[in-house]
Automatic annotation (TrEMBL):
It comes from Anabaena subtropica FACHB-260. This is Beta-phosphoglucomutase. The gene is pgmB. Belongs to the HAD-like hydrolase superfamily. CbbY/CbbZ/Gph/YieH family.
Length: 218
């Protein structure tokens, strides 16, 4: 019996992926490391540190240099997200959030980002969510289930009462490992492991979700 939804932030409710990309691209250019938009796809939902590791590969940076680069990229990112408004919500996000709340569902956010609180505030949805699990909440990043389990706990729900909505393969993996229902947004090649897949939240209603989840439960 489903009683709550946990939404990933970047790629599900808003598209901050572009700002993460611009931040990493600037850093990579400054460090003379080749980096492209395509390479950025592999960083979807991946933690800040893991993202940097994928960018630098086996280049011999010290821990101090790694820390400095993470901070530098974050400064660029924080600057870029200053202008986020409700207009940056992805199509269908607000309609579904509002509908789910009306049906009595609890709503949580499960984001790997340490900037999640800022983004949620700027999007104007802070009063529509009951709990936020972010990049400070747990140690182990997705695909470990810890972040979503933390969110479920904050909502006072059992994992099997929660639906996780994710755009990243690592996020679907994390939610499945936590014993939750999963909705994947995007191509099947990326989120096909989810119980239910939609191209995006545009036009998705609770009735659609309930029907497809019931189907998947059979
Ligand atoms: C996001 C993004 C990732 C980003 C990570 C950490 O997660 O998808 O690209 O690297 O958070 O963000 P920050 O550097 O702000 O702590 P999610 O989980 O909302 O998709
Ligand atoms: Mg995401």
């Amino acid at each position: 019996n489903i009683q709550g939804f946990i939404f990933d932030l970047d790629g599900v409710l808003t598209d901050t992926a572009e700002y993460h990309y611009l931040g990493w691209q600037k850093l990579a250019d400054e460090e003379n490391i080749p980096f492209t938009r395509e390479a950025n796809e592999a960083l979807r939902g991946v933690s800040r540190r893991e993202s940097l590791m994928l960018i630098i590969g086996d280049r011999p940076y010290s821990e101090a240099q790694i820390q400095e680069m993470m901070e530098r990229k974050n400064r660029y990112y924080v600057e870029l997200i200053e202008n986020i408004t409700a207009k940056d919500l992805l199509p269908g996000a607000i309609a579904l959030l509002d509908e789910l709340r009306q049906t009595g569902m609890k709503i949580g956010i499960g984001s790997a980002s340490k900037n999640a609180h800022t983004v949620i505030k700027r999007l104007g949805i802070a009063d529509k969510v009951d709990a936020i699990a972010d990049g400070y909440s747990v140690q182990k990043p997705k695909p470990a289930p810890d972040l979503f389990l933390y969110a479920a706990q904050q909502l006072d729900l059992k994992p099997q009462q929660c639906v996780v909505v994710e755009d990243a393969a690592a996020g679907i993996e994390a939610a499945l490992a936590g014993g939750m229902w999963t909705v994947g947004l995007g191509p099947v090649e990326r989120v096909g492991a989810a119980h239910v897949v939609f191209p995006s939240l545009a036009g998705v209603t609770w009735a659609d979700l309930r029907a497809k989840l019931n189907e998947a439960a059979k």
